[in-house]
């Protein structure tokens, strides 16, 4: 069959992204998104079609697609008519009903980003989880700008960036700090996140590293040696490159 995108983007509820993250359902979700974006809601998939999907999503063989189609069938996200060989792809609303989740606040994923859907899920969960922090920092920046209006018209050089630690990321994504760091690097590589490293020089003598770590034992893991200096690695400033969209109440057809 010929795969053609019906719309340039899909609207994905935050609660569905959180479900995918919590259940590590990343790859089946990626296949589901591709089929929702590039088919009219049903399709008869040949081996050639499976190979095409695998190639489009960056997998080596069509076996990965077969395996994840089966996982989607087991979750009832897609249906299959054995007699006709046709797959039916449930609407996002029906998938949410199946998983007993609700919510209309959503983020947009463009069809050319489906290959990076894991990073999209991570970015969506982080953006929603840090909304209170972003509002607070936005109001604080507005107040500071107002107070300094008569002194300087200079604006922030990092608009949209907020401090997000690996600990906070691990907590929101329900993973270890090690895995959170891997997910962060992946999302940055795939342009779902942008990061500005933040560090402080504690000493210009690298020989002081051991003594400083002992004195600041709670932060010892974040104190490193770099270019002959002792550096404290602070929370990176992160910009999350996904956009919010409130999903319509109108029910989508199956």
Helix content: 40-55%
What is the ordering of alpha helices and beta strands?
Answer: EHHEHHEEHEHHEHHEHEEE
Supply the CATH superfamily name of the largest domain.
Winged helix-like DNA-binding domain superfamily/Winged helix DNA-binding domain
Compute the number of structural domains. Answer: 2
The CATH first-level class of the largest domain comes to Mainly Alpha
How big is the Rg? 23 Å
- The tally of beta strands, per DSSP, is 10
- Separation of the first and last Cα atoms: 20 Å
Predict the CATH topology of the largest domain: Arc Repressor Mutant, subunit A
Q: Outline the low-pLDDT stretches.
A: 152-157
Helical element count? 10
Structural class, by secondary structure, is alpha+beta
Question: Which descriptor suits the 3D outline?
Answer: elongated
Structure description:
This protein has helices at 14-22, 26-38, 47-57, 63-74, 92-98, 117-129, 131-147, 166-173, 177-189, 209-215, and strands spanning 9-13, 42-44, 78-81, 86-89, 105-110, 162-164, 193-203, 223-226, 229-240, 244-246. The chain has 254 residues and is of the alpha+beta class. The chain folds into two domains: 9-129, Arc Repressor Mutant, subunit A (Orthogonal Bundle); 162-240, no CATH class. Strands 6, 7, 8 and 9 form a four-stranded antiparallel sheet that branches. Helix 1 crosses helix 6, helix 2 packs across helix 4 and helix 8 packs across helix 9. Mean pLDDT is 87; it is low at 152-157.
Brief account:
Helix content is 43%, strand content 22%. It has 254 residues and is of the alpha+beta class.
Q: What is the element layout, followed by pairings?
A:
Layout: E1 9-13, H1 14-22, H2 26-38, E2 42-44, H3 47-57, H4 63-74, E3 78-81, E4 86-89, H5 92-98, E5 105-110, H6 117-129, H7 131-147, E6 162-164, H8 166-173, H9 177-189, E7 193-203, H10 209-215, E8 223-226, E9 229-240, E10 244-246
Helix pairs in contact: 1-6, 2-4, 3-4, 6-9, 8-9
